[in-house]
């Protein structure tokens, strides 16, 4: 898809340089993330075309070259107002021949202009990029230049292609800040895979994760958990207290395992914890200790408890499905629930 966008824009730029005003750019053919750049080039194309026509009509032949130069300066000035970086690098000497972010009247640094050196931490990559294809599109992370110390939170899309610039075989790099685009995508993904009530992973994430575990025949240990008495707490103390009950339970489990372990809410009072490797005995001891601790603590005027069932996934099961594994864990969990009911008949129903 990026190849298509780059080809359209490159053809359009080459057309402007050869004969302004002979071809229009159809923005509907570009992907959304390229429309802004395409619209800017189109506006510049229109301005250049109009200025060129005015020059042809109003200037004498002897002043034609002078006026064209002034239009080029105007074109450069307009480019400098764009949010994107447009950088031209000599392929042989690795010198920057043009940068739309440079300060006018200041000679461009042979290695990199000051503005880009301070704002683009990957500038050396641009200088040393080798043109092995007609154009290249890649994404990198780097500094934003706005005081943000977290470099990994700033992202750029770099489109590069070879051109001949003032008799020099050169490379053009168009650099677009896509940090907002990345953050939006991350937020959408985060919302899609997280339970809004607890902040842990949700059923969709759990299902996709387990599908990858089973398809890749990985070893894992699954613990199916059911929060005892949630309906009782909701009915007797209200749903607000029920939410607090859930949060207290989630915090007990989450704080007892690593961040990399998968802990997901798959129903109102149903949860699953998945750890790497066949560690059923270790998991059994761990959950027994946590259950004892949870039952001994009092967060309000009701007994706290949960039931659990542990299943090992050895990676050698033939055509094992997630539904079958959950059914097995559910049977084991109900044996735990039966014991809890003997201790707390009012809570576990």
Q: What does this entry look like structurally?
A:
With 349 residues, the chain is α+β, with helices and mostly antiparallel strands. It has eleven helices and nine strands. Strands 2-1-5-4-3 form a five-stranded antiparallel beta sheet, with helices on one face. A four-stranded antiparallel beta sheet has the order 7-8-6-9, with helices on both faces. Strand 4 and strand 5 form a beta hairpin. The longest helix has 27 residues. The radius of gyration is 31 Å and the shape is elongated.
Number of strand segments: 9
Give the helix/strand class: alpha+beta
Shape: elongated
Uncertain stretches of 5 or more adjacent residues: 104-110, 144-151
Q: Separation of termini?
A: 56 Å
CATH class of the largest domain: Alpha Beta
**Overall pLDDT, averaged?**
78
Portion of residues in beta strands equals 15-25%
What letter string, H or E per element, gives the SSE order? HHHEEHHEEEHHEHHEEHEH
Rg over CA atoms, rounded to whole Å, is 31 Å
Q: What is the CATH fold-level name of the largest domain?
A: Alpha-Beta Plaits
Estimate the helix proportion, in percent. 40-55%
Q: Characterize the main sheet.
A: 5 strands, antiparallel
The number of helical segments is 11
Give the spatial strand order of the biggest sheet.
2-1-5-4-3
Fourth CATH level, the homologous superfamily of the largest domain? Reverse transcriptase/Diguanylate cyclase domain
User: Architecture of the largest domain in CATH?
Assistant: 2-Layer Sandwich
| Tally of individual domains | 3
> What is the oligomeric state here?
single chain
């Amino acid at each position: 898809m990026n190849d298509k966008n780059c080809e359209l824009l490159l053809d359009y730029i080459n057309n402007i340089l050869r004969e302004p005003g002979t071809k229009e750019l159809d923005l509907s053919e570009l992907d959304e993330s390229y429309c802004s750049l395409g619209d800017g080039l189109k506006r510049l194309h229109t301005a250049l075309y109009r200025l060129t026509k005015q020059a042809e009509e109003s200037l004498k032949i002897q002043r034609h070259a002078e006026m064209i130069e002034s239009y080029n300066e105007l074109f450069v000035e307009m480019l400098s107002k764009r949010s994107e970086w447009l950088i031209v690098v000599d392929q042989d000497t690795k010198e920057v021949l043009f940068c739309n972010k440079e300060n006018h009247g200041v000679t461009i640094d042979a290695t990199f202009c000051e503005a880009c050196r301070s704002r683009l931490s990957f500038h050396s990559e641009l200088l040393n990029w080798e043109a092995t294809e007609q154009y290249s599109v890649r994404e990198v992370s780097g500094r934003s230049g706005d005081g943000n110390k977290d470099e990994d939170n700033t992202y750029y899309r770099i489109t590069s292609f070879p051109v001949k610039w003032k008799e020099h075989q050169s490379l053009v790099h168009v650099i677009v800040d896509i940090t907002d685009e990345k953050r939006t995508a991350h937020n959408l993904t985060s919302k899609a895979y997280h339970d809004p009530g607890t902040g842990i992973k949700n059923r969709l994430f759990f299902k996709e994760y387990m599908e990858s575990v089973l398809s890749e025949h990985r070893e894992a240990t699954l613990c199916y958990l059911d929060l005892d008495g949630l309906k009782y707490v909701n009915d007797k103390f209200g749903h607000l207290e029920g939410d607090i009950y859930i949060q207290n339970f989630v915090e007990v489990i989450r704080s007892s395992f690593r961040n990399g372990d998968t802990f997901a809410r798959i129903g109102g009072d149903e949860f699953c914890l998945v750890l790497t490797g066949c560690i059923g005995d270790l998991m059994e001891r761990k959950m027994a200790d946590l259950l004892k601790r949870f039952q001994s603590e009092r967060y309000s005027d009701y007994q706290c408890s949960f039931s659990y069932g542990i299943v090992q996934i050895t990676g050698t099961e033939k055509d094992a499905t997630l539904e079958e594994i959950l059914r097995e864990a559910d049977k084991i969990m109900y044996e735990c629930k039966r014991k809890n009911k003997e201790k707390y008949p009012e809570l576990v129903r």
